[in-house]
Amino acid sequence: MKELLLFTDGSVNTKTKIGIGACLAVENSEISSEKLKKEVKIKQFENTSSTRLELETLLWALGEMASSENAIIVYTDSQNITGLLRRRERLEKNDFRSKNNRLMNNHDLYREFFRVIDEFECEFVKVTGHQPTRGKDKIHRLFTLVDRASRKALRKYRG
């Protein structure tokens, strides 16, 4: 079984609630960041927040891939995403409701997240974003491609 590496990140303007998500999917063997810079995909999301955007971007990126026989390793700097699997049982048991019995923010995306990842063989890896270049390994250099693409696209959107 081949491994597919999926890098996702997003950048949001909190005033306009416009966000740009970026993703890059590569086979483990093709790690050359200069060539892959052109392969980064971006998408605009509206009425979003940073937490919501990270989930929307991941779901969009996984939706771009047909269910495959590849194992997918998802690299993200989103603590929310990497922590969702640990929280799954409690979230589903409480029907995505808070202690006050109110539906949680982003409950719709949490439900969709669990539905979608059940279709894929996914592993989630938390990466540290915004590191100095000299301290980056290959994985962090690839993550930087989606980080920069989302921030650059958001700056262009702002005009």
Automatic annotation (TrEMBL):
Q: Which InterPro entries would you find in this protein's record? A: RNaseH-like_sf, RNaseH_domain, RNaseH_sf
Source domain of life: Bacteria
Q: Which GO terms describe its molecular function?
A: nucleic acid binding; RNA-DNA hybrid ribonuclease activity
- Boundaries of each RNase H type-1 domain copy? 1-155
One Pfam family name is RNase_H
Please report the name of this protein according to its UniProt entry.
RNase H
| Taxon lineage | Bacteria, Pseudomonadati, Bacteroidota, Bacteroidia, Marinilabiliales
